[in-house]
Amino acid sequence: MKVSAVVVTRNRKTLLLECLKAIRSQTRPVDAIFVIDNASSDGTEAILHQAGYLPAAVSRSTAAAAGQGQKGCPTVLIDGRTVLYYTRLARNVGGAGGFQLGLRQAFECGYDWMWIMDDDTVASKNALGNLLAHSRRPEIGFACSKVLWTDGSVHLMNIPQISPLVSATPFNAADDEGLLLVNACSFVSVLVGRRAIARVGYPIGDFFIWLDDIEFTRRIVRNGFWGVYVKESVVYHHTPLNRAAAADTDRVENAWKYYYQARNHIYLSRKSTTGLKRIASLGFFLSNSIQAALKRNDSRFLFLTLMLKGFAAGLRFEPQIEKASDADGSQC
Prior knowledge:
The protein is α/β, with parallel strands linked by helices. The chain folds into 2 domains: 3-237, Alpha-Beta Complex (Spore Coat Polysaccharide Biosynthesis Protein SpsA, Chain A), CATH 3.90.550.60; 252-314. The protein has 10 helices and 12 strands. It has helices at 13-24, 44-50, 63-66, 94-108, 127-133, 194-200, 212-222, 257-272, 275-295, 300-314, and strands spanning 3-9, 32-37, 75-78, 82-88, 113-118, 121-123, 140-148, 165-166, 169-170, 179-182, 190-193, 226-237. Strands 1, 2, 3, 4, 5, 6, 7, 10, 11 and 12 form a 10-stranded mixed β-sheet that branches. Strands 8-9 form a two-stranded antiparallel sheet. Helix 1 (13-24) links the parallel strand 1 and strand 2 (32-37). The longest helix has 21 residues, at 275-295.
C-alpha cells in the first residue's frame, strides 16, 4: 500500500517546514510528499533547499539535471525512503487549484491513499497511522482527523459535518470501531482513497478558495462511500485565532475571500436543493450576508459589495469537475 501526503502552501515558509517535519515524524511514514507552491514570494523554495528537501542545484532551468518527477516536478529522496515532489506554480491558483493539482499528481503516480493538509497543519506522530488503521472497510472513501488549535482546544474552523443519517446510514453505525460517519470535512488532515477519486474525480480548482473541501468530500459521500471521523488521529491547526470565518468580525485584508465564499456557497446550494428549499436556502444566505456586513464596525460597504457580487456570480457559476485518468503510476 502506497501512501502520499499532499500539502499546498503559499508564503508561509516557516509553517511549511513545521508541517513537513511532522509528516516526516509519523510512526507510519509516507512514501511521498507532494508540495504545491502557489507562487510564493517569501523564499519558500530557497528554504526548502536549505532544509535539504530539494537538491541544491535545482531551479526552474536546471531541474532536468537534478532529477524529475511526474510532469517535470523536481524530486529528492529524503529519510532514505520518502520522495518529495515539489511544484512551484507561476501564479496563485488558490488552495482549491493547488489541491486539485496535488491530488492529480499523486493519483497519476499510483498512490493508494492521499493525505491532504494545509501548510499550517502540524500532525501528531500517530495521526496518519490511526487514519489508516481505521480505513480498512472497503466502503470508506475518506477519513478525517480531530483538529485542535495550538492550545489543545477543538478548532472551530475544522469541525466535520455530521447529521443523524449520512446517506441513510446512522452516523454512529460503526462507533464500536471508533468511527463516526460524516457528510463532509475540511482539508486539514483528511485521508482520501484512490477508489474514491477514481469514481468522483478531483476537487474543483475553479473554487479557488473556501468550500472546495466541503464540496469534494460531500461528493465522495453522495457517490456511495463512507466519510469517517477518527478521533484518535490528532492534528493541530496553527491559525492566528481559533474561530471560523465570519464576515462580521474578520480582518479587512480578508474581505476579498468573502466573494468566493458567497459564490461557492450559492453554487453548492443550487446543486443540493430544488424548488422552495432552494429559494429558502438562497434567501437565508443572502439575509445572513447582509446582516453580517452591517454588524461590522468598519468596511461595511466593502464586505457587502463583495458578498453580493459573489452571490450573483454563484447563480451562474458552472465549474467543471475534472475526472481522474486510468493511471498506472508510470508517469512518475
